[in-house]
Specification:
Largest sheet: none
Number of domains: 2
Distance between the termini: 37 Å
Helix content: 55-70%
Order of helices and strands: HHHHHH
Shape: extended
């Protein structure tokens, strides 16, 4: 759960006017803190991180995480920016799958001015 919150915090920071170097330093500190809490050794090189992440995903129980185990190498492929954009796309598409067009009254969405439910 902490990793999800950290990823969301980084995603929110990406849309701010924070200088790139400052954002990069903050993300390294954040990942270091998470690694410390999870008793994982922080990794300095991105390629080493991708390799460790792939090994970790492949070590998951295949009966519980069949897709993650099977796609582990693809999940760490590409650049960090590619993976970040893909991750945001997955989150947005997942959230969008809960929407109806237009939203049903049961969803309790605010109605445009002048309309009632």
């Amino acid at each position: 759960m902490k990793l999800v919150l950290a990823a969301l915090a980084l995603a929110a920071a990406a849309g701010t006017a924070m200088p790139a170097e400052k954002a990069k330093a903050k993300s390294k500190a954040l990942y270091g803190a998470i690694a410390y809490e999870q008793e994982v050794t922080p990794i300095a090189e991105p390629a080493d991180f991708a390799a460790q992440a792939a090994l970790w995903m492949k070590s998951l129980p295949k009966d519980q995480f069949p897709n993650t185990v099977e796609l582990a190498d693809l999940l760490v492929a590409g650049s960090a920016e590619d993976r970040f954009e893909w991750g945001l796309d997955v989150i947005i598409r997942g959230l969008a799958s809960y929407l109806t067009s237009p939203p049903s009254a049961a969803a309790h969405w605010p109605q445009p001015t002048g309309e009632s439910s």
